[in-house]
């Protein structure tokens, strides 16, 4: 039961590790996602308010009041207030910063709206049945069995605020239909809440635009447009499927290496609280944005209050109208709720701890996603550190090494064609890696010769369109306390007289530090030179050697801007201007995006640029780092059937920089030291069992894959 409480967590210098551990453990539920019981209680409470006039979300009427989303409202950072659940009795209407209004047209699309879109597509394709049937070699949208057509819809839905016009492209409804476009695209105006008043505004076929379906059909019949005939559909052509083909000289019909835990798991979990190798943290999966970590501590000392996924975008280019318009902003599709079941042995090791997730998005009851998050420890097959100390006489003085094992917190988002794998990795030496790996199907459109300026031909009539992925994270650092400062570190060449040979000069590098005192100074633009080191530190706390305790952010990214500054849709993603921006923490600046940005990026209700416009002081303050990572993807033939993860993973590291007095992984008992003995026998020092042992599961592979209301 969540009680109304007001807490201020302040740790004095005399706090012990066990005390801070207890605070972290008991504080973790404040960050936990709402339970099924709580979600149901909130819905029941809201439906019990007569003036809201709420109806079921799945009611087929569009002109209605219904609940789109229920998710946890995070408490304020400095004082935690938890509402009276599971028996709510009051509510507060929250607004966005600056009280920006939310246009109804900017709402995410729902299942009910898709129902009506499907209905109008049935009417459209009935009119164009002969054209589609002849073009595709026997496929149709209605009255079909094994040769059906489906569709994908494009966003944003218009060219300006207040619009709701969507380009839709038809595809063959076969396995991997995302890469089976048929060359028929239609622009539907569905702004009116009466679906009977929806209209077709444009149709695209064979690189030509038509004002209506009737106009296209008339020209098709009269010879006014060249007819397109796709190659005959071959059921044995497996190009979009996962079915193995080709040759490998490795015996892949037997199992490869597997992870084992010889003496059982070495991490602990309690609901949403996790402990491992000095680390402790709480986690949640926000339905709109996705995976988030809170109250991150090492040996009880907080390093970050929050590290959270904020937004993911994929902006495309192409020759067809659907390709030109595709600018996906995935929080608008509730990418956090697209967390489907993870397959043991593929998505996560069989030894992983699997966790169910629950979401309330576009539904009338909570939906359970079984095994949608996993936690596991893995070996990297790379030493964390090692040294062979040679005696330069054919022998050695000693060998020392420590295996590198990490804890992984993982979930995925399947936003239609694309699959994102979201990882947090916790290393024994105080390093955190935040990573996203992209896979899934490419977003493909119908091939035209001009399309080669915007991508690659990957099949007879299919163009893989170029696009840029950008991911935005919030990193609220509390380095040895909340009062932090920020500096960048570069190198400068110095030239001086050689003190031991005055006739000569020494040229070498020296450190050049720049303290950034304001938000604008700490907002680094894409296209500008980025510092070698970006360093967050506590000016009031020092380590044993007199250095200010700090952490730095190290990028693994190939990101760049996707649109010119201020150009239409770019206003909705103003965070994408900066690989790194540092702001002063404000509870009113909790997120960098919203679920409404996708369908109104032109006048967004959350504008990240506002966060740095006032150019506040950031010296000795509670700081937030906003990190953008990403990569350009020019599709190629090897992206068939799916984009593969190698080379398509980006992210960043949080690395201690004088935070500790020495490498904290020295606490690990997995170290091995070998010294030669006088009698020729090895002297081996180890602190783990000499015999590793083995443990392989006897359970057969199992996967359910369904998700349903509970």
TrEMBL record:
GO terms for biological process: amine metabolic process; response to antibiotic. It comes from the Eukaryota. The active site is at 330 (proton acceptor), 418 (schiff-base intermediate with substrate). InterPro entries: Cu_Am_Ox_Cu-bd, Cu_Am_ox_TPQ-bd, Cu_amine_oxidase, Cu_amine_oxidase_C, Cu_amine_oxidase_C_sf, Cu_amine_oxidase_N-reg, Cu_amine_oxidase_N3. Contains 1 topaquinone per subunit. GO terms for molecular function: copper ion binding; diamine oxidase activity; primary methylamine oxidase activity; quinone binding. PROSITE patterns: COPPER_AMINE_OXID_1, COPPER_AMINE_OXID_2. Its EC number is 1.4.3.-. Residues 107-206 form the Copper amine oxidase N3-terminal domain. It holds the Pfam family Cu_amine_oxid. The modification 2',4',5'-topaquinone is found at residue 418. Gene3D superfamilies: 3.10.450.40, Copper amine oxidase, catalytic domain. Its cofactor is Cu cation. GO terms for cellular component: plasma membrane. Keywords: Copper, Metal-binding, Oxidoreductase, Signal, TPQ. Residues 1-15 form the signal peptide. Residues 258-666 form the Copper amine oxidase catalytic domain. Topaquinone (TPQ) is generated by copper-dependent autoxidation of a specific tyrosyl residue. Belongs to the copper/topaquinone oxidase family. PANTHER family: AMILORIDE-SENSITIVE AMINE OXIDASE [COPPER-CONTAINING] (PTHR10638:SF3), COPPER AMINE OXIDASE (PTHR10638). This is Amine oxidase. It comes from Lates calcarifer (Barramundi). The lineage of its organism: Eukaryota, Metazoa, Chordata, Craniata, Vertebrata.
